[in-house]
Amino acid sequence: MSEKIQSIRGMNDLLPEESGLWQKVEQILRSSLNGYGYQEIRMPIVEKTDLFKRSIGEVTDIVEKEMYTFEDRNGDNLTLRPEGTAGCVRAVIENGLLRGQAQRLWYTGPMFRHERPQRGRYRQFHQFGVEVFGLEGPDVDAELIAISARIWKQLGIKEVTLQLNTLGSTDSRALYREKLVAYFKQHLDQLDEDSLRRLESNPLRILDSKNSDMAALIAAAPVLEDSLDEADRAHFEQLKASLDQMGISYEINPRLVRGLDYYGRTVFEWVTTLLGAQGTICAGGRYDGLVDQIGGKATPAVGFAMGLERLVELMKEQDDFEYAAAPDAYLVLAGEQAATAGLALAEQLRSALPELQLVTNLGGGSFKAQFKRADRSAARFALVVGDDELEQGTMTVKDLKGELEQQTLSIQGVVDLLSSYN
Ligand code: ATP
Ligand code: MG
Question: In angstroms, rounded to a whole number, what is the distance separating the alpha carbons of residues 97 and 131?
Fold first, then answer.
């Protein structure tokens, strides 16, 4: 035997025992967004490296240390996408989707970051993202938050809180930046290496530091709120009023700056205490400057992304979590004749019940062996076809939960029974 080839660290297989739950989550996400009139967009997984440098920002963790970047056979510099916003913005510009109209979009798929793998942090992970272009008011920000809140309800997630902040306009941030640099310069000896480097290039990023030695310093830093202008304040106040009216509670977190450069005004994160250090399940905000920065006509934009691994993990942490993937029925085919005829019978049932989840016994086996497989499949019913049933055009239905008596029914009778349990 040859040596086994293993998967790449931080990149996981999604196994059959989990994939049903993932499908359910994805289905709820899709139908929620479609329900608000948002449309799906699919972008390539690989983009030019420059796209991410220009959008996420050169002086960010992602661009400095986390991207999977390579030269292809033409010598072009390419990167596996670390997030979806940059590619989405590129796509809407390139395809002319911003001409005189708003766009409400969503996407989902794998993202790649070379981080230290741990619970809730992987090198290939999956996001569900939403982006709105061409609408500048706080009503959109509020709707996005309402969408995410509704999704938590549908997924049965209760232990999650909304953190909210405003980063102000570009001008307000410039003013704040000066104050912040002045503050950190008074405490140079307490800054770590990353922060010293960022002091000139990107001082706001220092607030996002995960270094606990700097937590006290950061906690005492000036807050952006004092630098906000009138329009920023009005935007934020209206957003909060909408949330209040919808009954969505939030905590204002003045330290929330987000790890990407393109945000301005509204930023938010949904966080939980149930997932250890990786507690953010959804993060987003407004990025009015980005479309222009990537070569489009200046267009306001706002969006969020959810981390699906963390979302699924959090669902499982809920007290009342319940999920069991099981087919409706398992077709037991007793005898050679039934083994041949069984496939046609299964097709007949599927035609009558398009939603039916039916596993057909393949590969023969004794009656006993087939029943064992039926049990293992966790199906509710075993449908048995043997010589007698074949002759009479019937099936014997055994309730594997043991609530109904065993009965022999016509095919139509089986269809009626199954449809009442579907
Ligand atoms: P964190 O602060 O946890 O590193 P981030 O600010 O880098 O997150 P975003 O770029 O805003 O995250 O991505 C949105 C969401 O995607 C996060 O809130 C999280 O749920 C998920 N996510 C980000 N990075 C990873 C990762 N390496 N593994 C799994 N999920 C991730
Ligand atoms: Mg990160």
Answer: 13
